[in-house]
Amino acid sequence: MIPFLLILVPLIGGLISFLLKEDRAAKSWSLLIALITLAISLSGIYFFNNADALTLDWPWMPALGTSFNLHMDGMSSMLTLLTAIGLPVIFVAIYKNNYAKPGNFYAGMLLTQAGMMGVFVAADALVFYFFWELALIPAYFLASNWGGEKRVAATFKFFVYTFVGSLLMLIGIFYLYFQTPGNHSFSIDAFYHLHLKTSQQYFFFWLFFIAFAIKMPIFPFHTWQPDAYEQASTGVTMLLSALMVKMGVYATIRWLVPVFPQATNYFSMLIIILSVIGMLYTSLIAIRQDDVKRVIAYSSIAHIGLMCAAIFAQKQAGWNGVMVQMFNHGIVVLGLWIVADAIEQQIGTRKLSEMGGMAQKAPELALLFVIMALANVALPLTNSFIGEFLMFNGLFQYNIVIAIFALITIILTAVYTLNTVQKIFYGELVSTTNNAIDAGLNVRLILWVLVIVIFFFGIYPEPMIHLTNDTVNALLAK
Amino acid sequence: MNAIIFSVIGGVVMMFTGIITQQKKAIRNVAIIALIILLLANIFDTYGILSIHIGTHGMLNFQKFGLYFNTLAYAATLLFILISGADVTQIGEGKHAAEFFALIFFSLSGIAIITSYNSLLLLFLGIEIMSIPLYILTGGDKRNLKSNEASLKYFLMGSFSTGILLMGIALMYGAHGGFEISAMKPSAVSNEYGILDPLGLVLVFIAIAFKVSAAPFHFWTPDVYDGSPSVFTSFMATIIKAAGFIAFIRLFDNKYVELGLSWRIILPLVIIATLLVGNITAIFQQSVKRMMAYSSIAQAGFMLFAVFAENDMAKEGILIYTVAYSVATIGIFAVLEKMEDISLAGYNGLAKKHPLLAATNTIFLLSLTGIPLTAGFFAKYYMLLSVIKYGGSTVTWLVIVAVIFAAISAYYYFRVIQAMYFKTGNPEVRSYNKGFCFMLVILAAITILIGIFPTIILNWFYF
């Protein structure tokens, strides 16, 4: 029942939100729904963590071998928790921003959440595909309707990329469906027990991987991402970069590696090299960017690239690291976007060249951003450290040369992150930042909450590893 | 038999209604009642209740599949008249409302013959009975030059394809010595006449491909669909086109197995050509109506997969495709009918002024794109699944080409959504009433309902 509620509550809440015309009503309603979802998610981890509550299997189209089958294991719990935390954080952070037609905006956010929840809990390939596409539609409307001048074109590029990918995946799903024995089935267990020929694996592996690689995104499928992140309004960008990219990482772990084990082994070197090239390439680009949002966007590609590389290295430590990092990357990126948005709302620009000296005017925001930045660099004591450490560990076990190349990105990350901090907060005051003040109470409050999370999991990552360890063992054994 | 009889009676009744009254509302209501009676009569016939039997000497063969398709086609026509009936009565200075409805009924009786034919002669009759009323409907707006041109073009091209059809039938008769398709066994044809059978079949194929506007026999479609009054375009592009596919499926039902390899190559080429022409040309259209004409060619490409796969799943798929595609297209044309400016720019900013029109139109467009949770997804789903079931990994390339075109179709469908939601403008919309809004919501609800439970349609089929 828990996974169903996680989809149903934001879905109903979102549909009701369409009817809300008033700004305050829409904001408080959506925040309420997001908090209820968070409560359900936490209760699924701490109170109702038995198989009955976490599994649901309703008949849907029995003749076609598909059922509305939802199941939550550790990894699903962790990602639904991240999604459930993400939405209230975003809502509090953008509480003071004004959007035209607020009811529709918050409805779109909640519907996207419902779609993502569905992706994370689906245990049937057709249900999975359903939610995979459904999360995209409200996100498309959100990013097209609110944001920068070129948003419509940028978002459409994003949509077309993802749509092509998911259609290719659909073919793959159909094909696997006909490979299942007996009356054919779409269930994940049937897919796990397939005995595919090597040549089949080599081909259909790519149909799935391209869909996931576009979503993550992995070099060279990443070109939609910086434009889409830059042009969407920041609330939507947070949703896309902190939460939605995890769909790709999750799907790779859940639907790709266990289903195509031989193909994964065969292509792992190629994909790891692509990932590492992407990490280096995007980190170098990030150094040259002048727009805060683009810096964070490219930084996000680099971090996801590392996760992808660690997945395909297929080592226990690396997978543990991916699990931990999926959660922690979401938290850190949320923090970075919130600061970026707070700055833009105040001084009306995102250009680094037009900023400077804000620490004198907004000391608290400066402190918070420095902590976020250090977490982005994965300094020890911050939550990213343990995840990155484990992932590099996995990569080292796989191939030491590649690991060394990947390690260079740590330095590059430090360069562009600290450079950004320096350009915004230190140096001389300029005309734009002359009248800057500290961010609003809601922004500071939510950033402190994130800082607490960052340090908590930085010092004591055990709960996160414990939660997902069973999944790692089960999936790696396949 | 019920469907044929009642649809003809319906047509005759409508003609006399035009003599008795000139009141548009009354005429429309009579049409709706007659259509409901026809629908019920056909449903009863499907389950063998109150069905009328007339000896046809095996020329007609009533099977559940055909009868069930009638039900779907008549239900779609009912939705069409409920939502666009008022617009039908306005066409051609509003003097010929009853005649238009009569012609629609005659066309429906042609569909009833096509879905149940066993003799090739009846296929010919069915196609003609279905088409001739359409030539007149296309020219319904008789003071409009474009409408006249479309009508003439359709008639000339249609006659041409009829000639080809007759030639094909004649050749097949020569090879088999009879018209009954159930008795045709390609293996029984003596070598002397060996070439006649496949040649005849190809000619029949071309004629029907013309009716469903498959490339390269699609050239009439854009002009005719664009020129004829929008309401009739809506009728032609949905219900009539779907009936053409039933003709295909019945024709190949027992011939297909022995057709051999060449057929396996020709048909995919036709499919790809149709998808290519429809999708690529649709991208460049500025008029939404013309875009929908090309989109209907593209959708026909997808429906041809059912002819290619020719298994049970394909038959189920064509039923779902018919409903999904008809409902969405009827809805889009109903909205289009209310727009003063039917170019893309005319839709700019529709969401601000008429949110309901824009929202329902979006659902229909998403359905045509094939997004999950709409009927269109399951329509494409069944088509692709049936092809993979038929060919396994040997047809993967065909399926990949198809989904790439499906992705391209997102481009032009989403341009309408972008115009409605993300562009500013001042769209001029003709007045519409509550009933129209209600019907739009019903159509959208059907689209979403089938998008969640497609088996609703199929369960009746197996009942």
UniProtKB/TrEMBL annotation, chain A:
GO MF annotation: an example: ubiquinone binding
GO biological process: ATP synthesis coupled electron transport; electron transport coupled proton transport
Limits of the NADH:quinone oxidoreductase/Mrp antiporter transmembrane domain: 122-413
Keyword Zinc: no
InterPro entries (alphabetical): NADH_Q_OxRdtase_chainM/4, NADH_UbQ_OxRdtase, ND/Mrp_TM
Bilayer disposition of the protein: Multi-pass membrane protein
Major localization listed first in the record, in broad terms: membrane
Localization: Endomembrane system; Membrane
Taxonomy, superkingdom: Bacteria
Keyword tags: Membrane, Transmembrane, Transmembrane helix
One term under GO cellular component: endomembrane system
Record field: transmembrane: 6-22, 29-48, 68-93, 105-123, 129-146, 158-178, 203-224, 236-257, 263-283, 295-314, 326-344, 365-386, 398-418, 439-460
Family: Belongs to the complex I subunit 4 family.
Protein name: NADH-quinone oxidoreductase subunit M
Lineage, uppermost ranks: Bacteria, Pseudomonadati, Bacteroidota, Chitinophagia, Chitinophagales
From TrEMBL, chain B:
Protein origin, superkingdom: Bacteria
An example Gene Ontology CC term for this record: endomembrane system
Catalytic activity, EC: 7.1.1.-
Keyword Membrane: yes
Gene Ontology molecular functions: NADH dehydrogenase (quinone) (non-electrogenic) activity; NADH dehydrogenase (ubiquinone) activity; quinone binding
A biological process term (GO) from this entry: ATP synthesis coupled electron transport
Transmembrane segments: 6-23, 30-55, 67-85, 97-114, 120-140, 152-175, 195-219, 231-249, 261-284, 317-336, 356-383, 395-414, 435-462
Function (record text): NDH-1 shuttles electrons from NADH, via FMN and iron-sulfur (Fe-S) centers, to quinones in the respiratory chain. The immediate electron acceptor for the enzyme in this species is believed to be a menaquinone. Couples the redox reaction to proton translocation (for every two electrons transferred, four hydrogen ions are translocated across the cytoplasmic membrane), and thus conserves the redox energy in a proton gradient.
HAMAP family, A to Z: NDH1_NuoN_1
Subunit structure: NDH-1 is composed of 14 different subunits. Subunits NuoA, H, J, K, L, M, N constitute the membrane sector of the complex.
Entry protein name: NADH-quinone oxidoreductase subunit N
Organism this protein belongs to: Hydrotalea sandarakina
Record gene name: nuoN
